[in-house]
């Protein structure tokens, strides 16, 4: 069997600076580091920030070698909501000029991918209810 050191350069996660949401704001969403190399079993942290007033949601995506896009979770203000089934955590803040961090736990060969963050406006949906009045005869 092959050892971990033989896979040292095959077990990396490549991260690119490519926000997905609101193309006109591409220069106002920042992701670091630009790339990173890690061994299996380690963890990786990717930071995202933005400077878009009124935006308080950060979305995280993973794109595999086959170009398949996976939604990893999101953060609203300071509450992280990772999707189940992924070994990730989301910490920090999604407010402007703050940092939201995607933490990828216990890296494996399948962790090698391009990771994207996107800033998004969070709108509140108001729940409406109707009242039905009886007809008068």
Automatic annotation (TrEMBL):
Q: Where is the Immunoglobulin V-set domain?
A: 43-119
UniProt GO cellular component terms: plasma membrane
One BP annotation, GO: immune system process
Per UniProt, residues of the Immunoglobulin domain are 33-134
Q: Which InterPro entries match?
A: Ig-like_dom_sf (IPR036179), Ig-like_fold (IPR013783), Ig_sub (IPR003599), Ig_V-set (IPR013106), TCR_beta_variable (IPR050413)
Q: Which UniProt keywords apply?
A: Immunity, Signal
Please state what the protein is called.
Answer: Ig-like domain-containing protein
Native organism: Oreochromis aureus
